[in-house]
Design brief:
Elements (H helix, E strand, L loop, with lengths): L1 E3 L2 E3 L17 H15 L1 H4 L5 E4 L4 H4 L7 H11 L4 E4 L6 H7 L2 H4 L2 E2 L8 E2 H10 L3 H10 L14 E4 L2 E8 L7 E7 L5 H10 L8 H9 L2 E2 L3 H10 L2 H6 L22 E9 L5 E9 H19 L1
Parallel strand pairs: 3-4, 5-6, 9-10
Antiparallel strand pairs: 1-2, 7-8, 8-9, 11-12
Helix pairs in contact: 1-4
Bound molecules: zinc ion (ZN).
Protein backbone atom coordinates (compact mmCIF):
# COMPACT_ATOMS: atom_id res chain seq x y z
CA UNK A 1 0.00 0.00 0.00
CA UNK A 2 1.17 3.53 -0.67
CA UNK A 3 -0.35 6.72 0.68
CA UNK A 4 -1.82 8.85 -2.06
CA UNK A 5 -3.97 11.96 -1.46
CA UNK A 6 -4.50 10.95 2.17
CA UNK A 7 -5.62 7.40 1.41
CA UNK A 8 -3.75 4.11 1.31
CA UNK A 9 -3.85 2.66 -2.18
CA UNK A 10 -2.68 -0.83 -3.14
CA UNK A 11 0.13 -0.79 -5.67
CA UNK A 12 0.59 -4.55 -5.98
CA UNK A 13 -0.78 -7.85 -4.70
CA UNK A 14 1.12 -11.06 -4.11
CA UNK A 15 0.58 -14.42 -2.51
CA UNK A 16 1.97 -17.93 -2.70
CA UNK A 17 1.42 -21.33 -1.13
CA UNK A 18 3.83 -22.97 1.30
CA UNK A 19 6.05 -25.77 0.04
CA UNK A 20 6.28 -29.15 1.76
CA UNK A 21 9.09 -28.12 4.14
CA UNK A 22 7.50 -24.74 4.99
CA UNK A 23 4.28 -26.53 5.95
CA UNK A 24 6.17 -27.90 8.95
CA UNK A 25 7.27 -24.44 10.20
CA UNK A 26 5.85 -23.05 13.45
CA UNK A 27 3.16 -20.36 13.05
CA UNK A 28 5.53 -17.50 13.93
CA UNK A 29 8.11 -18.80 11.46
CA UNK A 30 5.47 -18.86 8.71
CA UNK A 31 4.52 -15.25 9.55
CA UNK A 32 8.21 -14.27 9.48
CA UNK A 33 8.67 -16.11 6.19
CA UNK A 34 5.79 -14.07 4.72
CA UNK A 35 7.56 -10.84 5.75
CA UNK A 36 10.92 -11.88 4.31
CA UNK A 37 9.34 -13.18 1.09
CA UNK A 38 7.29 -9.99 0.61
CA UNK A 39 10.30 -7.72 1.27
CA UNK A 40 12.33 -9.58 -1.35
CA UNK A 41 9.45 -9.67 -3.84
CA UNK A 42 8.80 -5.93 -3.65
CA UNK A 43 12.44 -4.94 -3.28
CA UNK A 44 12.40 -3.00 -6.55
CA UNK A 45 9.56 -0.81 -5.20
CA UNK A 46 10.37 -0.39 -1.51
CA UNK A 47 14.16 -0.47 -1.26
CA UNK A 48 15.42 2.80 0.21
CA UNK A 49 11.97 3.92 1.41
CA UNK A 50 10.42 3.71 4.89
CA UNK A 51 8.53 0.42 5.14
CA UNK A 52 5.72 -0.26 7.61
CA UNK A 53 4.50 -3.84 8.05
CA UNK A 54 0.97 -4.27 9.42
CA UNK A 55 0.48 -7.64 11.10
CA UNK A 56 -2.13 -9.36 13.23
CA UNK A 57 0.57 -11.67 14.65
CA UNK A 58 1.92 -9.94 17.75
CA UNK A 59 5.15 -11.98 18.21
CA UNK A 60 6.41 -10.48 14.93
CA UNK A 61 6.60 -7.02 16.56
CA UNK A 62 9.60 -8.08 18.62
CA UNK A 63 10.88 -11.10 16.74
CA UNK A 64 13.34 -9.29 14.50
CA UNK A 65 14.70 -7.31 17.44
CA UNK A 66 15.77 -10.59 19.05
CA UNK A 67 19.49 -10.90 19.74
CA UNK A 68 19.79 -14.64 20.08
CA UNK A 69 18.22 -15.75 16.83
CA UNK A 70 19.73 -18.77 15.21
CA UNK A 71 19.47 -20.78 12.03
CA UNK A 72 17.11 -19.51 9.35
CA UNK A 73 15.67 -16.82 11.65
CA UNK A 74 19.15 -15.27 11.90
CA UNK A 75 19.48 -15.40 8.11
CA UNK A 76 16.07 -13.80 7.71
CA UNK A 77 17.04 -11.09 10.20
CA UNK A 78 19.89 -10.06 7.87
CA UNK A 79 17.40 -9.66 5.01
CA UNK A 80 14.90 -7.73 7.14
CA UNK A 81 17.63 -5.37 8.43
CA UNK A 82 18.30 -4.25 4.85
CA UNK A 83 14.87 -2.60 4.78
CA UNK A 84 14.65 -1.42 8.44
CA UNK A 85 10.85 -1.86 8.51
CA UNK A 86 8.62 -0.83 11.39
CA UNK A 87 6.04 -3.35 12.59
CA UNK A 88 2.53 -2.23 13.58
CA UNK A 89 -0.01 -4.53 15.20
CA UNK A 90 -3.59 -4.58 13.90
CA UNK A 91 -6.34 -6.82 15.21
CA UNK A 92 -7.12 -9.95 13.19
CA UNK A 93 -10.66 -8.73 12.56
CA UNK A 94 -9.32 -5.49 11.07
CA UNK A 95 -6.97 -7.36 8.74
CA UNK A 96 -9.67 -7.74 6.10
CA UNK A 97 -7.45 -6.94 3.12
CA UNK A 98 -5.10 -9.84 3.82
CA UNK A 99 -8.03 -12.17 4.55
CA UNK A 100 -9.70 -11.24 1.29
CA UNK A 101 -6.53 -12.06 -0.61
CA UNK A 102 -5.91 -15.37 1.13
CA UNK A 103 -9.34 -16.79 0.40
CA UNK A 104 -10.22 -17.79 -3.14
CA UNK A 105 -13.70 -16.48 -3.78
CA UNK A 106 -13.96 -18.62 -6.89
CA UNK A 107 -13.86 -21.64 -4.61
CA UNK A 108 -15.89 -20.38 -1.69
CA UNK A 109 -18.66 -18.44 -3.41
CA UNK A 110 -19.33 -20.64 -6.42
CA UNK A 111 -22.96 -21.17 -5.51
CA UNK A 112 -24.39 -18.17 -3.78
CA UNK A 113 -27.94 -17.31 -2.95
CA UNK A 114 -27.06 -13.62 -2.82
CA UNK A 115 -27.67 -11.08 -5.55
CA UNK A 116 -25.63 -12.08 -8.61
CA UNK A 117 -22.40 -10.18 -9.13
CA UNK A 118 -19.50 -10.59 -11.51
CA UNK A 119 -17.78 -12.75 -8.90
CA UNK A 120 -20.56 -15.18 -8.08
CA UNK A 121 -23.02 -17.50 -9.74
CA UNK A 122 -26.39 -17.77 -8.09
CA UNK A 123 -28.29 -20.96 -7.42
CA UNK A 124 -31.00 -19.73 -9.81
CA UNK A 125 -28.47 -19.06 -12.62
CA UNK A 126 -27.04 -22.55 -12.34
CA UNK A 127 -30.41 -24.29 -11.94
CA UNK A 128 -31.77 -22.63 -15.09
CA UNK A 129 -28.61 -23.00 -17.18
CA UNK A 130 -28.22 -26.70 -16.35
CA UNK A 131 -31.83 -27.39 -17.35
CA UNK A 132 -31.46 -25.37 -20.58
CA UNK A 133 -28.33 -27.27 -21.60
CA UNK A 134 -29.06 -29.90 -24.30
CA UNK A 135 -26.85 -32.58 -22.71
CA UNK A 136 -26.99 -31.92 -18.96
CA UNK A 137 -30.77 -31.47 -19.02
CA UNK A 138 -31.05 -35.11 -20.21
CA UNK A 139 -28.72 -36.29 -17.43
CA UNK A 140 -30.82 -34.40 -14.89
CA UNK A 141 -34.00 -35.88 -16.34
CA UNK A 142 -32.46 -39.38 -16.12
CA UNK A 143 -31.47 -38.83 -12.47
CA UNK A 144 -34.92 -37.49 -11.59
CA UNK A 145 -37.08 -40.02 -13.47
CA UNK A 146 -34.79 -42.95 -14.28
CA UNK A 147 -35.83 -42.57 -17.94
CA UNK A 148 -32.74 -43.14 -20.11
CA UNK A 149 -34.54 -42.50 -23.42
CA UNK A 150 -32.47 -40.03 -25.54
CA UNK A 151 -29.74 -40.11 -22.91
CA UNK A 152 -26.45 -39.24 -24.68
CA UNK A 153 -23.25 -41.09 -23.89
CA UNK A 154 -21.80 -39.46 -20.79
CA UNK A 155 -18.58 -40.96 -19.39
CA UNK A 156 -18.84 -42.07 -15.72
CA UNK A 157 -22.60 -41.49 -15.63
CA UNK A 158 -22.87 -43.12 -12.20
CA UNK A 159 -20.72 -40.28 -10.74
CA UNK A 160 -23.42 -37.65 -11.33
CA UNK A 161 -25.71 -36.67 -8.47
CA UNK A 162 -28.37 -34.07 -7.79
CA UNK A 163 -28.03 -32.00 -4.64
CA UNK A 164 -30.57 -29.30 -3.93
CA UNK A 165 -31.72 -29.63 -7.59
CA UNK A 166 -28.23 -28.83 -8.84
CA UNK A 167 -26.14 -31.33 -10.84
CA UNK A 168 -22.73 -32.28 -9.43
CA UNK A 169 -20.10 -34.81 -10.39
CA UNK A 170 -18.62 -36.83 -7.54
CA UNK A 171 -14.92 -37.43 -8.01
CA UNK A 172 -11.89 -38.35 -5.94
CA UNK A 173 -9.52 -35.45 -5.40
CA UNK A 174 -5.89 -36.31 -4.77
CA UNK A 175 -3.90 -33.36 -3.43
CA UNK A 176 -0.13 -33.11 -3.48
CA UNK A 177 0.21 -32.88 0.28
CA UNK A 178 -3.11 -34.19 1.54
CA UNK A 179 -4.94 -37.52 1.56
CA UNK A 180 -7.44 -38.31 -1.21
CA UNK A 181 -10.99 -37.23 -0.57
CA UNK A 182 -14.35 -37.26 -2.32
CA UNK A 183 -15.40 -33.90 -3.75
CA UNK A 184 -18.48 -32.76 -5.63
CA UNK A 185 -17.74 -30.67 -8.70
CA UNK A 186 -20.43 -28.31 -9.87
CA UNK A 187 -21.39 -29.26 -13.45
CA UNK A 188 -21.05 -26.15 -15.61
CA UNK A 189 -23.34 -25.93 -18.67
CA UNK A 190 -21.87 -24.45 -21.84
CA UNK A 191 -23.62 -21.09 -21.43
CA UNK A 192 -21.95 -20.47 -18.07
CA UNK A 193 -18.44 -21.48 -19.16
CA UNK A 194 -17.37 -17.90 -20.09
CA UNK A 195 -18.54 -16.58 -16.68
CA UNK A 196 -16.73 -19.37 -14.84
CA UNK A 197 -13.55 -18.80 -16.84
CA UNK A 198 -13.61 -15.14 -15.76
CA UNK A 199 -14.35 -16.18 -12.19
CA UNK A 200 -11.46 -18.64 -11.92
CA UNK A 201 -8.90 -16.58 -13.81
CA UNK A 202 -9.74 -12.89 -14.31
CA UNK A 203 -11.08 -11.67 -10.98
CA UNK A 204 -8.94 -9.88 -8.41
CA UNK A 205 -9.34 -12.91 -6.16
CA UNK A 206 -8.05 -15.28 -8.82
CA UNK A 207 -5.36 -12.83 -10.05
CA UNK A 208 -4.53 -14.52 -13.35
CA UNK A 209 -2.89 -17.81 -12.35
CA UNK A 210 -1.15 -19.87 -15.05
CA UNK A 211 -2.85 -22.61 -17.07
CA UNK A 212 -2.09 -25.56 -14.80
CA UNK A 213 -2.91 -23.64 -11.62
CA UNK A 214 -6.18 -22.33 -13.07
CA UNK A 215 -7.13 -25.86 -14.12
CA UNK A 216 -6.20 -27.49 -10.81
CA UNK A 217 -8.07 -24.84 -8.80
CA UNK A 218 -11.08 -25.07 -11.11
CA UNK A 219 -11.20 -28.87 -10.79
CA UNK A 220 -11.62 -28.52 -7.05
CA UNK A 221 -15.00 -26.97 -7.63
CA UNK A 222 -16.19 -27.23 -11.22
CA UNK A 223 -16.56 -29.73 -14.03
CA UNK A 224 -17.28 -29.47 -17.72
CA UNK A 225 -16.11 -31.74 -20.51
CA UNK A 226 -13.73 -29.35 -22.28
CA UNK A 227 -12.20 -27.70 -19.20
CA UNK A 228 -8.54 -27.97 -20.18
CA UNK A 229 -9.08 -26.77 -23.75
CA UNK A 230 -11.31 -23.84 -22.71
CA UNK A 231 -8.96 -22.73 -19.92
CA UNK A 232 -5.93 -22.88 -22.24
CA UNK A 233 -7.76 -20.88 -24.94
CA UNK A 234 -8.99 -18.33 -22.40
CA UNK A 235 -5.51 -17.73 -20.98
CA UNK A 236 -3.96 -17.61 -24.47
CA UNK A 237 -6.33 -14.74 -25.29
CA UNK A 238 -6.06 -13.01 -21.89
CA UNK A 239 -4.74 -9.47 -22.46
CA UNK A 240 -3.59 -9.05 -18.85
CA UNK A 241 -1.51 -12.22 -18.97
CA UNK A 242 -0.07 -11.22 -22.35
CA UNK A 243 0.96 -7.82 -20.93
CA UNK A 244 2.40 -8.97 -17.64
CA UNK A 245 3.60 -12.55 -18.03
CA UNK A 246 5.69 -14.67 -20.30
CA UNK A 247 8.68 -13.42 -22.19
CA UNK A 248 8.46 -9.76 -21.21
CA UNK A 249 12.18 -9.27 -21.67
CA UNK A 250 12.98 -11.38 -24.71
CA UNK A 251 16.48 -12.74 -24.81
CA UNK A 252 18.63 -10.31 -26.76
CA UNK A 253 21.76 -11.87 -28.22
CA UNK A 254 25.08 -10.19 -27.49
CA UNK A 255 25.87 -7.82 -30.31
CA UNK A 256 29.28 -7.71 -31.86
CA UNK A 257 30.75 -4.45 -33.12
CA UNK A 258 33.73 -3.90 -35.37
CA UNK A 259 36.85 -3.18 -33.32
CA UNK A 260 37.56 0.57 -33.51
CA UNK A 261 40.82 1.53 -35.16
CA UNK A 262 41.38 4.77 -33.23
CA UNK A 263 40.25 6.49 -29.98
CA UNK A 264 36.77 8.10 -29.97
CA UNK A 265 35.67 6.04 -32.98
CA UNK A 266 33.07 4.24 -30.88
CA UNK A 267 31.59 5.49 -27.58
CA UNK A 268 29.85 3.37 -24.92
CA UNK A 269 27.42 4.97 -22.49
CA UNK A 270 26.02 3.53 -19.26
CA UNK A 271 24.08 4.87 -16.29
CA UNK A 272 25.08 3.86 -12.76
CA UNK A 273 22.79 4.56 -9.79
CA UNK A 274 24.17 4.59 -6.25
CA UNK A 275 21.77 5.05 -3.27
CA UNK A 276 23.35 7.64 -0.90
CA UNK A 277 20.56 7.93 1.66
CA UNK A 278 17.02 6.62 1.98
CA UNK A 279 15.72 9.12 -0.54
CA UNK A 280 18.76 10.44 -2.41
CA UNK A 281 20.35 8.54 -5.21
CA UNK A 282 23.55 9.49 -7.05
CA UNK A 283 23.33 8.93 -10.79
CA UNK A 284 26.58 8.69 -12.71
CA UNK A 285 26.63 8.86 -16.47
CA UNK A 286 29.62 6.91 -17.71
CA UNK A 287 30.95 7.55 -21.19
CA UNK A 288 34.09 5.95 -22.46
CA UNK A 289 35.56 5.26 -25.83
CA UNK A 290 35.78 1.61 -26.66
CA UNK A 291 39.27 1.84 -28.10
CA UNK A 292 40.74 2.75 -24.69
CA UNK A 293 38.86 -0.09 -23.00
CA UNK A 294 40.13 -2.63 -25.53
CA UNK A 295 43.65 -1.25 -25.32
CA UNK A 296 43.71 -1.60 -21.50
CA UNK A 297 42.16 -5.06 -21.72
CA UNK A 298 44.72 -6.23 -24.25
CA UNK A 299 47.59 -4.74 -22.21
CA UNK A 300 46.34 -6.50 -19.08
CA UNK A 301 46.04 -9.80 -20.92
CA UNK A 302 49.52 -9.32 -22.35
CA UNK A 303 50.98 -8.73 -18.86
CA UNK A 304 49.18 -11.81 -17.49
CA UNK A 305 50.57 -13.92 -20.33
CA UNK A 306 54.04 -12.58 -19.65
CA UNK A 307 53.71 -13.64 -15.99
CA UNK A 308 52.63 -17.13 -16.93
CA UNK A 309 55.54 -17.79 -19.27
ZN1 LIG B 1 -4.92 -13.68 -17.41
Amino acid sequence: MQEHQGKNRPIAYASRTLNKAENNYAVTEIEALAVVWALKKFKYIIYGYPVEILTDHKPLLHLFKGKDLSGRMARWLLTVQDYMPTFTYIKGKANVAADALSRNCALTCAVSTETPTFDTLTHTDIFKAQRDDPMWSKVISYLETGNDLDLPHVPSLSHYVLQDDILYKATTFTGKYEPSRLIHQLVIPQTLVPSVLKLIHDTSHASHPGKEKTLSQARLKYFWLTMRRDINNHIDLCHTCARTKGNIHPHVPILSYPIPSSPWDVLAIDLLKLPLTERICLSVLIIFHVFQFLFQFQTKQHKQLQKQF
